[in-house]
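Chain particulars:
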Amino acid sequence: MSTDKHIVVGFDGSPASVAALRWALAEGRTRSAAVTAIEVRPPDTEFLPATSMALHPHGTLPPRRPAPLTRLAAQIADEHTPHPPLTVRQLSGRTGRALADNAHDATLIVIGAHHRTATLVTGMGAFAMDCVRHATCPVAVIPEST
C-alpha cells in the first residue's frame, strides 16, 4: 500500500485506545489503508549503577518485558476480518507531539478520548491537544463508547 493511504493510531491498551483501534480498522477497510498502532512510552530513565538509587541490586536496570499490546492489537484486528494490514510499534516520547511527528506520512491519526468530561476550553486532554496541535493531517478523537 502506498503512504497516501496510511492511518496511525495511538494505542496503549486502554478502553479508549481499543475503541480508537477498532474505529481505525473499520476506517482502514473502507479506505483500503494500512493501519499502524503506536504505543508512546516514556523514555527509559537512566540511572548510574554505583548510586543508591539504582533499580537493581547489582547496578543494572531490570530487563524490560515486551508489551502485550501486539497480541491485544492482533485480537482486536481479528474481530474485523477481513482487516487492513496492521503493524504495532513502540515509540519513546512523552507527549502527543511524539505521535504526531511519527505520523508525518499518515493521512489520518486516530486517538481515544480518555476524559469523560470536557476540559475547560478544548474538550480534550493534554496528550490529544498536543497531538492535534502538531499533526500534519486530520486527527480523529474517538470516545470509548463507539
